[in-house]
Write a structure and sequence with these properties.
This protein has 99 residues and is an alpha+beta fold. It has one domain. It has two helices and three strands; from the N terminus they run βββαα. A three-stranded antiparallel beta sheet has the order 1-2-3, with no helix packed on it. A hairpin with a 5-residue loop joins β2 and β3. α1 packs across α2. The N terminus is likely disordered.
Length: 99
Protein backbone atom coordinates (compact mmCIF):
# COMPACT_ATOMS: atom_id res chain seq x y z
CA UNK A 1 0.00 0.00 0.00
CA UNK A 2 1.50 3.34 -1.01
CA UNK A 3 0.53 6.53 0.76
CA UNK A 4 1.31 9.84 -0.96
CA UNK A 5 3.19 12.25 1.26
CA UNK A 6 3.66 15.46 -0.70
CA UNK A 7 5.49 14.46 -3.85
CA UNK A 8 7.07 11.37 -2.29
CA UNK A 9 5.60 7.96 -1.58
CA UNK A 10 5.90 6.01 1.62
CA UNK A 11 5.18 2.33 1.20
CA UNK A 12 4.44 -0.21 3.88
CA UNK A 13 4.71 -3.94 3.36
CA UNK A 14 3.56 -6.77 5.58
CA UNK A 15 5.16 -10.18 5.32
CA UNK A 16 3.70 -13.48 6.55
CA UNK A 17 5.75 -13.35 9.76
CA UNK A 18 3.79 -10.21 10.77
CA UNK A 19 6.85 -7.98 10.60
CA UNK A 20 6.13 -4.62 9.03
CA UNK A 21 8.59 -2.85 6.75
CA UNK A 22 8.42 0.84 5.94
CA UNK A 23 10.24 2.05 2.83
CA UNK A 24 10.99 5.78 2.67
CA UNK A 25 13.02 7.36 -0.12
CA UNK A 26 16.39 8.82 0.84
CA UNK A 27 16.63 12.55 1.44
CA UNK A 28 19.85 13.92 0.01
CA UNK A 29 21.96 16.40 1.96
CA UNK A 30 23.07 18.56 -0.96
CA UNK A 31 21.79 19.49 -4.38
CA UNK A 32 23.45 19.22 -7.77
CA UNK A 33 23.07 22.96 -8.24
CA UNK A 34 20.62 25.66 -9.18
CA UNK A 35 21.78 25.61 -12.81
CA UNK A 36 20.78 21.95 -13.16
CA UNK A 37 17.25 22.73 -11.97
CA UNK A 38 17.37 21.67 -8.32
CA UNK A 39 15.69 23.85 -5.73
CA UNK A 40 18.32 24.26 -2.98
CA UNK A 41 15.66 24.75 -0.30
CA UNK A 42 14.48 21.15 -0.73
CA UNK A 43 17.78 19.81 0.63
CA UNK A 44 19.02 19.67 4.22
CA UNK A 45 22.52 21.14 3.96
CA UNK A 46 21.77 24.42 2.14
CA UNK A 47 18.84 25.19 4.45
CA UNK A 48 20.96 24.52 7.53
CA UNK A 49 23.77 26.74 6.25
CA UNK A 50 21.36 29.58 5.47
CA UNK A 51 19.75 29.30 8.91
CA UNK A 52 23.15 29.43 10.62
CA UNK A 53 24.26 32.41 8.55
CA UNK A 54 21.04 34.33 9.19
CA UNK A 55 21.14 33.60 12.93
CA UNK A 56 24.74 34.83 13.12
CA UNK A 57 24.06 37.93 11.00
CA UNK A 58 20.95 38.94 12.94
CA UNK A 59 22.71 38.33 16.26
CA UNK A 60 25.66 40.54 15.28
CA UNK A 61 23.36 43.26 13.91
CA UNK A 62 21.34 43.24 17.12
CA UNK A 63 24.55 43.43 19.14
CA UNK A 64 25.68 46.48 17.13
CA UNK A 65 22.31 48.17 17.64
CA UNK A 66 22.19 47.46 21.39
CA UNK A 67 25.88 48.17 22.04
CA UNK A 68 25.21 51.71 23.38
CA UNK A 69 23.07 50.10 26.10
CA UNK A 70 26.02 47.82 27.03
CA UNK A 71 24.04 44.71 26.23
CA UNK A 72 26.18 41.55 26.35
CA UNK A 73 26.43 39.25 23.36
CA UNK A 74 24.72 36.46 25.27
CA UNK A 75 21.55 38.52 25.58
CA UNK A 76 21.54 39.24 21.83
CA UNK A 77 22.07 35.56 21.02
CA UNK A 78 19.23 34.59 23.38
CA UNK A 79 16.85 37.11 21.81
CA UNK A 80 17.67 35.78 18.33
CA UNK A 81 17.20 32.18 19.50
CA UNK A 82 13.80 32.92 21.04
CA UNK A 83 12.69 34.82 17.95
CA UNK A 84 13.65 31.84 15.77
CA UNK A 85 11.68 29.47 18.02
CA UNK A 86 8.59 31.70 17.95
CA UNK A 87 8.88 32.16 14.19
CA UNK A 88 9.16 28.38 13.70
CA UNK A 89 6.08 27.77 15.88
CA UNK A 90 4.15 30.47 14.00
CA UNK A 91 4.98 28.93 10.62
CA UNK A 92 4.27 25.40 11.87
CA UNK A 93 0.86 26.31 13.31
CA UNK A 94 -0.10 28.22 10.15
CA UNK A 95 0.70 25.13 8.05
CA UNK A 96 -1.38 22.96 10.39
CA UNK A 97 -4.34 25.38 10.19
CA UNK A 98 -4.20 25.42 6.38
CA UNK A 99 -4.37 21.62 6.20
Amino acid sequence: MATPEGTRNVSTEYDPDEISKVCVPNRHAGSNGVWIGDNPFEFVLPVTLIQLFLAFAVSRALYRILRPLRTPTLVCNTVVWFSRVFLFCFILFNKIDQS
